[in-house]
Please model this.
Amino acid sequence: MDESAVEKLRDNPFYVLGVRPAATRAEVEREGQKLLGMLELKLSSAARYQTPVGPAERTADKVRRAMAELRDPERRLEHELWARLDPAARRTPAEPADAPPRSKADAPWVGALSALGWRAAK
Amino acid sequence: MIPGVVVAAAIAAALAARASARRSALGPELRPPAGGNVGTWAVFVWTVLVPLGLSFALFTLAGQLWAIVPLAAITLIALPFPIARAVLVPLGQARLAYWLTLGSDVFFHLDRKGGAALTGAWALAMQPELDEAMASWLAGRLGEHQPLRGAGVAATAMLLAARGDRDGARALFATVEAIDDRVCPPAAKRIANAWLASDAAERGEWQRVAELGVTLTRGGRLGWLLAGVAQSLLLDPSAPDRFGLWLRWALAPHRAATKPMVERALVARDGGFIDPEEEPPIAPTDAPDGEDAIHTALSLHTAVLARAAVRAEDVRAVGQAWDAALEDAATERLLNERALVLGASGPAATLARVRAAIEEDLAGVVLASALPLKELGDRGTLTVRVRARLRDRMLSEVEAASDAIRRRVDDKRELPAEGEWREWANLAERYERGVQSAGEDFRRLSFAKIYPDLCGFAVWLFNDRKQRPLGNAIFRWLLAEAEALDDQRAIALQTKNVACGV
Model:
C-alpha cells in the first residue's frame, strides 16, 4: 500500500469538511466554522470523518488547511475531481477485521535473522 | 612420543620460515595468492599440538587434573573460530571473538584479519545495544588491513548489519560471492550466503533462499537447510525428500529455531497448505448517473491504493480507466462547467496536474509492491507513462551512482577500501534491481553508461590503489555482463583484465 497516495486522498478538503464537491463557497465556509467550533468543544462527533479509503481523524489544523485550499479556485477544481467518490462508498473488506490471518506456505519468516543467530532478539 | 613431536615441530618451523622468506622477497603487493586453504600454522597445530593435546586428555582421564590447563589451551588454539562462533558470538563478546579468531588458520587462512573482524562484527550484531566504541575499534582494525579481501568485505557488511543498515549489508554481502577464491576464505562466502538466505527468508523471498543454498559447500549447513525448506515451500520438484530435509536439519545449527520451519515445509510438501484464494480483480463501485468514466477510474484508483498485494493487471486496469476518463468528453465538459462557476482557468492545467498525480500514485503503488516493470505491458497511455517514469527513475539512479564514481576517479579522490566496496556494491545492486524489473532494455542502456565508468574505476583500484581483489571483482562482474549482452569488445578487454589476477 502506498501510504502517501492514500494520505493525499484521505486529506482531500471535501472529505475533511464533510461536504460534497457541488457545495457553494458559503456552505464550505459555514461547515468549516461549525467544525472548528465543535472541535473546540471537543465533541466526539466532529473528531472523525469518512473517506473512500477509511475513516480518518479530524483536527482543527486540517479543517483550516482544507478551508484555505478551497478558497483557491484552481486548487478547488482539482480537489473536486478527486472527491467525486462518495465517502460512504467505501468498499467493504473481503474479510471481517477479526478473521484469523490467512496462512500461506511461503509467508515470510518473521524474526528469522534473530532466530538464526544473526542479531540479538528484540 | 617426544622425538616425533620434535621432528614434526622442526618440519612445521621450516615450512613457516620458507613461506615467510618468499613473502618478504616479493613484497606485499606482488605477493602471489596463497595456495590452498590451510596455512603453515594450522599444519603445525594439527600435527604437533593436537597430538600433544590428546596425550594431555589421556593424562586428565587418568586423574592428572593439572593436564586440564594445557588441554584447554590447546583446544583454544586448535579450534579458535568454532569456539568463538559457538560461545563468544552469542555472548556478544566482540573483542575476544576478534582476538581468538585471529589464530584461525583453518577457516580464514586466506584472510585471517578479515575473518577476525567478521567474527567480531558478528558478535557485535548480537549485542542488545550497539557498542559504538567497539564498532569503531573493529572498523579501525579492518582499515589497517590492506587490501581488503573477502572476509574483510563480509566483516564490513556485518558491521553495517550491526548498525542497523540492513539494505547496505545486503548489498555488500551479495558482492562476496563474486570475489576470487584466491582471496576469499570459503567460510566468508558461506557466512555471507547464510546471512543473505536468512534475510531473504525474513522478507519472504523464498525463491532467492532456494538459490543461495543450492549446495552444502555454497550455502553452508544453514544455507543448505534453508534452501531445502524454500524448495519444499515452493513445491519445487528438486526439493529434498522427507529424510533429506531432516538430515539437513540435523546437520544445521539452531535446530530449535528451524524445527517449526522444517515442519511447515513438510506440511507444504504433503499439500497441507491450500493457497488462499487470490483477491478478486479490482472492480469499480456503482456510479451515479452521468459520471461513469471518472467514477470508475476513481473507484479503481482507490481500490488499488487500499490493496495490500497489487498485481500488474490491477495497475493496468486503473491505467485504462483513467485513460478513458481523461479522454472522455463528459469529463472535459464537467471541468469546463465547474471552472466557469468557480472562476478558475480552463480545465487543461487541472487535467495536467491530475494526470501527474495519478502517475505519481501508480508509480508509488508499483514500487511498494515490487512489481516488475516488464509485467505492466506496453498498452495504455497512462500505464506506459508510469512504466517509463519508473524506468527513467531507475536509470537516473544508476547514472548518478556511476557519475559519482567517475568524478571521484577523475579527481583521484580516494575513499577507504570499505567505502570503495560500498560504492561499488550500491551501484551493482541498483543495476541488478533495474535489470530484474525492467528487463534487457534497461541492461543495454545502463551498461553503455556504467561500463566505461566502472572499467576506469577498477583499473584505478587495481593499478594505483593496490586494491586488487576489488578491481578483480569488478572486472569479473563487467565480463559477466558483457557476455550477457554479447559485447565482443568488452568481453575481450575484461577477459584480459580478469587474467591479471588478484
Observations:
- The first helix of chain B runs from residue 2 to 26.
- Residues 292-371 of chain B form one domain.
- Chain B touches chain A through 67 residues (CB under 8 Å).
